[in-house]
């Protein structure tokens, strides 16, 4: 073996910015195998054109990409690597935005308290018949699922045609974030005395929801976009807990006004959490307090007459 075009591991370490220990580890893991290993001394030698590969490995590891993933990315070609890097950057920006929102939310709670930021009221939710499409997923798949689910449900509703009785909403059966999966249900309420959906595709069902009390708060504009909206969920949960109510169902994200653009100032969403109204003095006082709070917003609750308008699909938010 002609070693004149090879770099011993010490010089290769200096050129690549990877420590000798890291190079040995990458050899064992198959990420960066030396060009030649002396059978007598065991010394590793690297071709000079591997310096660029080693520098790429160093950069990928600085991005906290696991070693096994680094090996896969390097074996997929430059185009695949570039696509993966763009996706990694989007994920990092998303995590940063979540962290920034969490910090601002905590600072706000320290200085003002959650209830000063989000006013919580109680309303009675009517019994509803709903068209439902559900899927278990985490936050990364939420946008695409809701977009496709509502498109498919509106197609089914149009064949009826169904008469909508209220705004579209989403039910979250647990925590839906970058680390946790949960069942998410896209819901469309429709008039039970009118046309009914037929030929439902697989995974789409009709369900009856009973009337129930809902602890609610509303958010508008940028505050309705993820991740800032998470503070509103926290405020409602804290309100319910402090007043001794019981959580009796998955939280709902109701689309009161949705333009289709996440940061549009005109957007208005409602977080509505089903609760149990126990009839004792403390609970009655809490209910009276919540109902007596002034509300300057227009009344968007459906009346006895069904609406023919198409409700806007809610934005993903948790």
TrEMBL record:
Enumerate the residue ranges of region (Disordered): 275-318
Q: Which Gene3D superfamilies match?
A: 1.10.1660.10, Regulatory factor, effector binding domain (3.20.80.10)
What keywords does the record list, in alphabetical order? DNA-binding, Repressor, Transcription, Transcription regulation
Annotated protein name in UniProt: MerR family transcriptional regulator
UniProt lineage: Bacteria, Bacillati, Actinomycetota, Actinomycetes, Kitasatosporales
Q: Which organism is it from?
A: Streptomyces polyasparticus
Q: Which InterPro entries match?
A: DNA-bd_dom_put_sf, MerR-type_HTH_dom, MerR_fam, Reg_factor_effector_dom_sf
HTH merR-type domain sequence ranges: 6-76
What SMART domains does its record include? HTH_MERR
Classification via Pfam families: MerR_1
Biased segments, Basic and acidic residues type: 276-293
Task: Give start-end positions of Acidic residues composition bias.
Answer: 294-306
């Amino acid at each position: 073996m002609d070693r004149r075009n090879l770099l011993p591991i010490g010089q290769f370490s200096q050129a690549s910015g990877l420590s000798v220990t890291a190079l040995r580890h990458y050899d064992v893991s198959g990420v960066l195998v030396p060009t030649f290993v002396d059978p007598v001394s065991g010394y590793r030698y690297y071709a000079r054109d591997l310096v660029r590969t080693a520098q790429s490995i160093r950069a990928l590891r600085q991005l906290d990409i696991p070693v096994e993933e680094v090996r896969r990315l390097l074996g997929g070609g430059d185009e695949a690597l570039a696509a993966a890097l763009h996706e990694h950057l989007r994920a990092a920006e998303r995590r940063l935005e979540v962290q920034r929102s969490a910090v601002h939310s905590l600072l706000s709670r320290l200085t003002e308290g959650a209830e000063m930021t989000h006013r919580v009221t109680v309303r009675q939710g009517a019994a509803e018949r709903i068209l439902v499409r559900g899927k278990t997923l985490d936050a990364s798949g939420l946008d695409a699922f809701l977009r496709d689910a509502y498109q498919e449900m509106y197609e089914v509703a149009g064949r009826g045609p169904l008469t909508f009785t209220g705004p579209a909403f989403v039910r979250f059966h647990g925590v839906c974030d970058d680390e946790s999966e949960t069942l998410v249900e896209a819901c469309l309420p429709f008039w039970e005395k009118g046309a009914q959906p037929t030929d439902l595709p697989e995974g789409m069902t009709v369900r009856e929801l009973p009337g129930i009390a809902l602890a609610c708060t509303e958010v508008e504009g940028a505050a309705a976009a993820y991740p800032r909206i998470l503070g509103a969920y926290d405020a409602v949960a804290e309100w319910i807990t402090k007043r001794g109510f019981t959580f009796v169902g998955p939280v709902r994200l109701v689309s009161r006004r949705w333009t289709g653009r996440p940061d549009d100032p005109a957007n208005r969403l409602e977080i509505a959490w089903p609760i149990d109204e126990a009839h004792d003095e403390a609970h009655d006082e809490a209910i009276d307090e919540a109902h007596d709070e002034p509300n300057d917003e227009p009344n968007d609750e459906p009346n006895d007459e069904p609406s023919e308008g198409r409700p806007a699909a809610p934005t993903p938010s948790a």
